[in-house]
Amino acid sequence: MTPGLWRALANLAGFQLGWLACVLGGSLVGGIVAGGVIAAHLRWQARPGEWRWLAGFAGLGLVIDGGLAMAGGFRFPPATFLIGPLPAWTGPLPLWLWLLWPLFATLLHHSLAWLWRHPWLAAAGGATSGPLSYYAGAELAGVTLAPWLLATEALCWAMLCLWLCHRLGRPGGLARAG
Fold first, then answer.
1. How far apart are CA 96 and CA 23, in angstroms?
2. Nearest one of 15, 106, 24 to 58, comparing CA atoms
3. Helix residue ranges per DSSP H, the chain
4. How confident is the model at residue 176, as a pLDDT?
5. Please, what is the Cα angle at 61 between 60 and 62, to 5 degrees?
6. Residue 159: partners with Cβ closer than 8 Å, 6 or more residues away
7. pLDDT tens figures, 133-156
8. Residues 178, 174: Cα–Cα separation, whole Å
């Protein structure tokens, strides 16, 4: 295998490890593991300035999932918030759900870089894999989803992936996006 393939697989494995830790381990375990994955990504794999993408997606997660949570899209079990009261800026989101956004951003310039040149494939992937991830995570974490949430997430993720194609998929887009 080429070094580039090993790096892409390590990128995917780090994301998957962080996702599982967040969903199965909750905010404490998820915070520790996701924090470690993000720190390792920034240290060994990230391109210069890539931290801005991770920070931007963290903010985007607060807006999108925070808004959907305030609209009643998620019902979290009481154990979700066991690490104590959350800071006001996280809104009604548990830390573990919020951390999934910067974890996803670790994939943008690496494992998913090829996808941004294919807008319809990216939109279809976002519209299907986004809601599937929420559904699987909810089942594993005991979160109840409102009947309308998965359709809303499908629309949000399809539009987000189309925007990523516009921003990162044009010639030189990944080079300038760092």
1. 7
2. 106
3. 3-44, 51-70, 95-105, 119-141, 149-168, 173-176
4. 54
5. 90
6. 123, 126
7. 999 999 999 999 999 999 999 999
8. 7
